[in-house]
Every structure is written in C-alpha cells, then in structure tokens.
Amino acid sequence: MMEAKPKRRIVTENGDTGEDLVLATLIGNGDDVGPLVRHAFEMGRPEPLVHQLKNVARKKEAEIEDLCKTHYEEFIVAVDELRGVLVDAEELKSDLASDNFRLQEVGSALLVKLEELLESYAIKKNVTEAIKMSKICVQALELCVKCNSYISEGQFYHALKTMDLIERSYLKLIPLKVLKLVIERRIPVIKTHIEKKVCSQFNEWLVHIRSSSKNIGQTAIGLTASARQREEEMLERQRRAEEQNTGGLGELAYTLDVEDSEQDSVLKFDLTPLYRAYHIHTILGVPERFRDYYYENRLLQLQSDLQISYTQPFVESYQTFLAQVAGYFIVEDRVIRTAGDFLLADQVETMWETAISKIVAILENQFARMDSPTHLLLVKDYVTLLGTTLRQYGYEVGPVLDALDKSRDKYHELLLEECRKQIVTAITEDTYQQMVIKKEADYENNVLSFNLQTSDIMPAFTYIAPFSSMVPDVCRIIRSYIKGSVDYLSYGVNTNFFSVLRKYLDKILIDVLNEVILETISNNSIGVSQAMQIAANISFLEKASDYFLRHAAQLCGIPSRSVERPQASLAAKVVLKTSRDAAYLALLNVVNTKLDEFMKLTENVNWTTEEMPQGPHEYINEVVIYLETVMSTAQQILPMDALYKVGVGAIEHISNSIVSTFLSDSIKRFNANAVSAINHDLRVIENFADERYHSSGLNEIYKEGSFRSYLVEARQLINLLSSSQPENFMNPVIRERNYNTLDYKKVATICEKFKDSADGIFGSLANRNTKLTAKKKSMDMLKKRLKEFN
Predict the structure, then answer these.
(1) pLDDT exceeding 90 applies to what percent of the chain?
(2) Which of 393, 559, 587, 618 has its CA 20 to 30 A from that of 635?
C-alpha cells in the first residue's frame, strides 16, 4: 500500500485531468462523493462524472493488477492455504450435519416435552388466574352474606361499612359481569332498605322520647324543688338564729349542704337511636335530609305538646303540660350538647321562642280566668320551678317570669278578697270580750307570736289579755297574707321585692282591715264595751303592724334593723291610729249618750224649787256608778292615753251638758236653789274626777291636765251664779282669774233666765232677804252691762 502512492503521482504526471485527480483523491480518502454526484445531476451533466468514475475504476484495476503482480507468490501460498481451509470446512460441515442429525433426533423429543411444558405453564397460569378470580368472587359473596347478616341483626352501621368495602375494594375486581351487575343493582336497594329501617326505629324513638318527656320534666322540676326547699330551710334556720341572737349564725351561713346535682346523671334517657340514625344517614351521604327530618318532626311534636285541653281545668293539667315542655327542651339540650353539629343552636332557639310565646299566651289567658288565689299561686310556683330548671340548661325564661309579674296584681286582688272575707268573719263573730288564756302554749301562739305582750315577763295563768280573740285571728290572717304574697313574689323577675310586698301589706291593712273596723265602728248598734274593746283591739293591731313589717322583711331576707327605724314604719300604722281615734270618738259618743240618758237635767232637776237642797240629786249617783264602771273597764283594756281620753271626754261632756242645759230653750227660768242643787251634783263629779285621776296613775303622766280641769266651765258658771256679786264678771281682772272659760253671750243668755227666789211667798220673811236683794241688784247690773256689751 505504501508503494501505491508514488504510482498515483506517476499517473497524474502522465496526463490525468484535474477533475479525475480530485475525484480519485476523494475516493482514495474514503470521502463522500455524494455531493459531486448530486451536483452533476442537478447541472444536467452526469456523463462527465460517469466518465471520470470509469477512469478512476480503470486506474484502480491497474493498481490491483500491479499489486497482484508484486505479491504473486504470497497469493499462491494463500490460495493453497485457502484450499486447505476449504477441505477442513467440508469436514466440519459433514461433522456438523452428522451432529445436527443426531441433535434433531434428540431435540424432537425434547421439543415435544417443551411444548407440553409450555402448555402446562399456560394451564397453570389460567388456573391461577381462575383461582384468583374465584377468590375475589368468593370474598365478595362472603361480604354480601355478612352484609345480609348484619342487616338481619339490625347492625346497619356494619352493613354499610361492609357495602362500602365491597364498592371500594371488590366491585371493580369482580370478573363475572353477571355477579358484578347483581351486586351493583342490590347495593342501592339495600341502602334504601337500611334507611327505611333506621327511620322506622327512629320514629319509634320519637314516640318513646315524647312519652318520656313528661317524666323527664317532672324529675328535673322535682330536683329543682328539692334544691329550693333546702335553700329555704337554710334561710329559715338563719332567720331563727337571728331572732334568737344565737352565736351560730355565722356558721349557719356557710354550712349549706351543697350537693352536686348532676342532673345528667339523674335524668337518664337513651339517645342512641338518634345517634345511630344520624351516623347511618351520614354514611349514606344524606345527613342534611335527616337533620331536616328530625327538626320538622320534633317541631310538630312541640306544637302538639303546646296544645291544652279546655275540657279539663287548667289547675288539674298545668303540671303535666309544663313538665312535658320542660322534658322536651331538656332532651333538646342533651342533643345539642352530645350530637356534635347535628342540631343547630338557632334551631333550638326557634323552637324555644315558639314554646315561650305559646306558654305566655296560655298563662295570661288562664290567669285571667282564675278566681282562686290558691290556684294561681300553685301554677305560679310550678312555672317558677320550670323557669329555674330550664335556666340551668341555658334557656331564656324572662318572658315567662314577666307574665307572672303581670298577674301579680290579679293574684293580690284575689288574695285580698279572700282575706277580706276572713277578716269580716273574724270581726263579726268576735264576742268583744277580753281573751282568756289558760296555757303557756296559747300565750305563745296568740300573744308572743305577734309581739302583743305588754310585758317581757311571762304572766301567771289564767291570763286575761287586754284584747279580744279578734286580734290574734286577724294577725294570723295578715300573716298568712304576707306569706302568700311572698310566695308569689319569690323567684320572680324582681329579686328585691320587699318594697312591692310593703305596698301590698299597706293595702290589706288600710283597704281591708281598717275599712272593716270603721264599718263596725259606724254601726250604731255597738255598745260601750264593744266600742271600748274595738278601740283596745285597734291599739294592739297598730302595735302588730310593726311585727307584720318585720315578718315581711324576714321572709324577704331583709335585715330587721332596716325596718325598725321610725321612718320605715308602715303607712297603715298612721291610718290605724286615726281609726283608733275614731273608735275613741265612737266610744265617747256611746258613753256620752248614756250619760245624757242618766242626767236628763231638764227632767231630774226642779229649776224653780223653793226649798234649799240638802245634797246632790239621785241621778248623779247613777252617773258616778256608770263612770266608775266605764273607767274601771277602760283601765283594764285601754292604754293609758286612751283611758285619759275617755275620762276627759266623759267629764268634759258632763260639763258641757250642765252649761248646755242652762242655755236650753226648755229652761225658761231657774233660781238660786236650782243652782245650789247643781252645785252639789257638780261637786260629786269633781270628787270622782279627782279620785279616778289619782287612783289610775294618770296624775303621774298628765300632771297639768287633771280630770277636774275639764269641769272648769261648768264650775265657773255655777260659781258665777252663786256669787253674791256676779257683776264682778265684767271686771277684766276678776273675769280672767275666775271666769276665763265663760263666754259673754252664754253668760248673758243664762243670766236672763236667773230669777231669785226672793219673790216667793215667804221670801220677805227670810233672814237672808237683804243679801238676796243685794245679789239681785248685782245680777241685774250684770244683765244690764252684758246687754250693753253685746
């Protein structure tokens, strides 16, 4: 090859063209001549290229020939060697043919075995696949059987989970289209069946829970009532300790047994069917539909529960009605607290607003129909227990309490009317005799219970009380009225209702008790003892009004000291005091009327007698005996100020009667003997007045107003008419000192009637003729001067 290059140069030197040289170079270098060929054809001149290629081919053949000539011997040797190789190849071919024959003989049997093996492998694969497919079908069918078993046992949750497993893991893998189609068709049917079954069970639970709501509500309200009773008992112990000033008050205030009244543990009712139904509907993918179904059905139940029967009195059905409502909302509270997002708070609020508006309307309607305070109070107490119970579960019960508050006046009107009848009966049936108490227990019940005692020392028994049986009877009625009022006002809208209670307490004392007493006083048929006992009774009722106020404050939890101030007393106390004064006036009117019957001066006195009287008239003894009886009885019954008023009134009436008799038109004239007789009578009355004034102890209380001082007008008139110089009446100094209570006109009228007895038959022969003449002249002068003055 190394020698070929000089020869190419020789060829070139021997006259080859340049193109042949370029082409030969490209071919010799192994370069691609494609572009030259493409160019030649594109130019439409392939012939020169073909010619050039032929030239190159001839040149190559020449080179080959030269090369063969150069290596001829080596070539011969190589051909010989090649022939030897051919012989070996034939031998090898013969061996290979022989081996191939033997291999074919052996391989045919193996090939048959291989085909059998491959067929076996194919069968095995098919069997394996069949087994796998069968297992899937069997497992799917087993799950279907298990699902049916769960359904028959009512375990719907497990049934749905099983169906879900079939759908997710087996349904796509089932190779049998028929089985797959059957399962696909049955799954919705089974789900619908399960939903119907669950709804059926849930409907049964709805019926059951509605029938159980009454018991649930009654139990919850009963627990609230027990807690309230314990609280009231604790407060009662505190009040008693406060009244007795025991040192254990502070301890009592902190020893209330607080029981953890977990109502959830007491109020046992099963919500499992609800939970299960909701859970299954959630699995079924329709939780909203079940929520709506529950809400609609429970709302229908509520509307049915809120209907009351008008064929049965409300007072007989209110507990069942209210307990049913309470149980309903206790169940709803448990549902909203334990069922997750199943029930919305807005839905419960809507149901509660529906219920509360209906309850308020029913209560207002029924309260308007009621005519018994006891019935109204029973309903009110149960309603407040309902409110307290449901408030613990977070319900707003304000509208219900407002309805009770609106019926407050209606209740008190009924209670007031009931107490009025009792008070009228107590006063009408009263014997107006001092109450006889024989035992200490009776004394405590009738006297100490109402702070009516006149002394802190326990009296000896038998004890004669200064009041009649009407007083403790009325006190018991008022106390029961206070208790009834507190019972209604308690646990209502206003926790501090003492001011309201105070108003109602004043109302019964003023509008009922005081009016009945005034009607009794205005009755003209009452006697002195009755009038006196009524006046005494009013004094003790006035005293009891302080007890009523303290008792009301204690029931309201108000400290007693806050109502013991004078400015905190009841307005009724002032009214009773006025009525007591009216009773005193009635008593005085009766006494004065009786005194007028005894005295009858125009009939019992000879106003123109010619005989000098030797002593008082007989009628005056009856007057004194009557006054003694009246004053003695009054001293036993009436307080000292009333005793003083009675004495003063009677004595002053006697004085006025004497003066009025002298002024009377029925007395045309009188003489000195009549004046002397009246003077004797007046002295008897004066002596009685002094004796009674001192013996009763009034002289120690009323030091400047003795009974005698209220006879002063009659005394000054008698002194003037008995005076030897009556004309001194016109002397301002003497008149101010001796006749300051006498009126000019009255004196003038009386003096005109005065006719001296000197004109009598034996008057001129009497030793006192001269004195009578001087007195007559003085009297005439007085008459004359009084005429001038008038």
Answers:
(1) 8
(2) 618
Q: Other C-beta atoms within 10 Å of 180: how many? A: 17
d(CA 514, CA 576): 6
Residue with tokens 């000291």: 561
**435 and 467 Cβ atoms separated by less than 8 Å:** yes
d(CA 313, CA 470): 37
Task: In whole angstroms, give the CA distance from residue 261 to residue 397.
Answer: 21
Beta bridge partners of 436: 464
Residue-wise pLDDT tens digits, 569-607: 777 788 888 888 888 888 888 888 888 888 777 677 788
Compute how many other C-beta atoms are within 10 angstroms of the C-beta atom of residue 278: 23
Task: Give the number of other CB atoms < 10 A from CB of residue 638.
Answer: 24
Q: Are 416 and 507 in contact (CB under 8 A)?
A: yes
Positive or negative, the CA dihedral 292, 295, 300, 303 is negative
Q: Do 462 and 437 form a contact (C-beta atoms < 8 A)?
A: yes
Instruction: State how far Cα 479 lies from the chain centre.
Output: 25
Q: Which element (helix H / strand E) includes 39?
A: helix 34-43
**What band does 123 get if pLDDT is binned at 50, 70 and 90?**
very high
Q: How many CB atoms neighbour CB 323 within 10 A?
A: 24
Whole-number pLDDT of residue 687: 92
> How many residues in the chain?
790
Q: Which of 157, 216, 223 is nearest to 191 (CA)?
A: 157
On whether the CB atoms of residues 706 and 689 are closer than 8 A, the answer is yes
By the 8 A CB rule, do 652 and 707 touch? no
**Cβ proximity of 629 and 598 under 8 Å:** no
